[in-house]
Model the fold of this input.
Amino acid sequence: MRLRIPLWLVVAVLLPAASIAHDLNLTSVRLIEGPDGFLVVAQTPLSKLAESTGWKVESIDLGRAEQALDARLKLDLASGERVSSQVMLDVAGDKVTLQRSYRGALPAASLRARFYPEQPQSVTVFTVIRNGQVVGETVLDRTHPGSEDAPSRSPFVEFLLMGISHIAQGYDHLAFIVGLVLLGGTVRSLLKTVTAFTVAHSITLSCAALGYASLSPRLVEPLIALSVVYVGVEYFHGSLKENWRPVLTFLFGLIHGFGFAGAFAEAGIPREALPVALGSFNLGVEVCQVAIILATFPLLAGLLKRHPNPTAWMKAASALGVIGLGTFWLVTRMIG
Done:
C-alpha cells in the first residue's frame, strides 16, 4: 500500500506543540549508605533552580545555591547527625548538587514534596542505595507529590510512564518523524523509517546519559529544528529516493536522542539505576510515538480521500508550513 499525505494536515495536527522543547525538568534526591554513615545528595538543573528563584544563572554563588536547595529539599530523616554540607556548581553542565554527610545507620526516610511543586511538569526521583545497590526508588510527579503518596510500582513502570507522558505533552522530534513518514511510500519503507529513527534515538540517549558521549543542548536543539525544516524542503522537492529515507532518518535520530539525554545527566540519577531508567523511559517514548502514529494515520488517510490530488499551491503551502514550523523552533532556540 502506498500513501502520500499532504503535509498541511501534519502541521494542523502538530502545531499545538510548536513551542515545546526537550525539557524533562528532572531532579534526583539520593540517600546513600556509606562505611561511616550515609549521604544525602540532591541534584537539579541549575537553570531550573534559577528560574524558580527569579535569579540569573550567572548571579548564583555557592551560598545562594545552598539556601535555595535547602528550601526545596523536603526530606524527613528518622535519625542521623549532620557532619558536613557542600554545594557544587557546574554552570557548563547546567547542574547544581547539594551533598550532605551524616553519622549513623541508613535511616527510614521520606520525601514530602518534589523539588518544584509549582511547576506542573516537574519530576523528582527519590532513590535509596544500600551496599551499592538500589533498594528503593520513587518517582514524584504532579499526581504523586510525596514519596509516601506514590504507588508501589517498579522503577521500570515509573520511567515507562514518564516517557509516555513526556511525549504526550510535547514532541517536536515527533513532528520530524511523523512528517517524514507521511511523505509517502510503502508499508515496508514506513517500518524501515520508524525503526531507523527508534534505533538511532536509543543509541545516543543511552550513550550520552551514561557519559560516553555528549553534545551541547545549544547545538542539539537547533539541529532538531533544522530536521523539521528538512521535512518541509524534502516534501516540496522530493529529491531523496524512498530507499534512502531510513538512512537519513537514522542520522537525524542520532541527534534527536541527545535531546533527552542531557536531562538524565543534569538530574544525577544514580548510575546503578540508569540502565532500567533509560531502557524503560526510551520504551515509553517509542510506545507513545507509535500509538500517535497509529491513531493519526487512518484519520489523515481518510482526510486524503477528500483531497486526493492537492493542487500546486496546496503543496507549496504544506511545505512552507512545515518549514515555517521548524524555522520558528530554530529561531527561538538560538536566541532563547
Remarks:
- The longest helix spans residues 274-306.
- The chain is about 50% helix and 20% strand.
- Residues 30 and 127 are 5 Å apart (CA to CA).
- Strands lie at 2-3, 26-34, 37-44, 75-77, 81-90, 95-103, 109-111, 123-130, 133-140, 185-186.
